[in-house]
Amino acid sequence: MAGNESTTRDELTLRQREILRTLIQSYVDTAAPIGSHTIQKLSALDVSSATIRNELAALEELGYLEQPHTSAGRIPTVKGYRCFVEQLMQQVELPVVEQRMINHQFHQLRPAWDQWMRLTAAVLAHKSEAAGLVTPPRAFNSRLKHLETISIRDTVCLLIVVLQDGNVRQEMLVTESAVDQDTLSRISNKLNALLRNRSVREIESSTNPEVTGLQDLERDVLQHVIYLMQQADQRTLREIYRDGLDNVLRQPEFVDSDKFRQIVELLEHRTFLEEVLPRILNASGVQIIIGGEGGHEAIEDVAFVLSPYGIKGQASGVLGVMGPTRMQYARAISAVQYIARLMDNLMAEMYATNT
After folding, report:
1. Label partner for 195 (CA 20 to 30 A): which of 69, 89, 114, 253?
2. How far apart are CA 150 and CA 159, in angstroms?
């Protein structure tokens, strides 16, 4: 996700690019301002410290660096990080042995969304050393997998609706007269045969005489099925699984109590996440939000690496990591990319099995 502080290759010389890359990599490791002597020692440049100091001043003037104190070294700005992520950072893949281990962990679980979500958040947190986040897949046009009506008392039954994305909805129904379980089972079987794999729109627009000619109780059950499916389609992204918040809070950036509180509130109140995550659903590939990009000053010390996952047009969610702007971006991006692909495949397998 491009920020407001976009950069161009032509703005920086090759030497400036090498200095900026070296400084950011060193700052990510140490969390301490970086001076010219450190860059001279770590970079491949054969130039004096004085030359590097001049280039650091130029980079600061261009907005890529800032100096926290007059006598201190420099640290990256949001613009500096954006340039690093888009132009200077070396792309990496998760090692094959780690990919195999993660893949094995997921396939050891039974196909249950709650378990998959918890494992996704935990693996992302562990591999990125940041906080892992994931929302359950949301079907924008829920499709019916199965429904069941179960007798509770003479005039009370439980309607259970299972959707293709694994979402389960249920509701108590009160009938005008006593209904036995055999009748309820017959209605369930009939509606399953007529409605399986259909969306609300397809059900409501059906001209099938068997659908339009349902009997009173059958029609009543159908209307409740439609209502529950509509509820599912109107869900927000409020449900967020997370893991590894302690990875973020123990970073030196958040020793300050106010910044510590901001991070906790960011996840607890979720206003920012509820605004951003829907946009990620419509994006393609990994999206990166750094600091206050997009007018979000409250997260100036935080970065997100996020990706949509799932099956476009059917069901999708968002997964990723949250960490300090001084995060290991290459590592985070490789973890997010791999797990998003893995979740794509798992969902494709589930949908293929259900159809």
Report:
1. 114
2. 7
pLDDT score for 156: 94
Alpha-carbon span 265 to 21, nearest angstrom: 32
Q: Decide if pLDDT at 82 tops 60.
A: yes
* Cα separation, 221 vs 240, whole angstroms: 32
In the DSSP assignment, the letter for residue 89 is S
Question: Whole-angstrom Cα distance, residue 188 to residue 209?
Answer: 18
Compute the Cα dihedral for 230, 236, 239, 244 and give only its sign: positive
Distance from C-alpha of 336 to C-alpha of 315, rounded to nearest angstrom: 18
Q: DSSP secondary structure string, 139-178?
A: ETT-BEEEEEEEEEETTEEEEEEEETTS-EEEEEEE-SS-
pLDDT at 2 over 80: no
Return the pLDDT at 271: 67
Q: Let me know: does 238 contact 270? Beta carbons within 8 Å.
A: yes
The amino acid present at 281, given as its one-letter code, is L
The answer to whether the pTM exceeds 0.85 is no
Distance CA 259, CA 96 (A): 37
Secondary structure of residue 317 in the 3-state scheme:
strand
What is the tens place of the pLDDT at every residue in 90-120?
A: 888 999 999 999 999 998 887 677 889 999 9
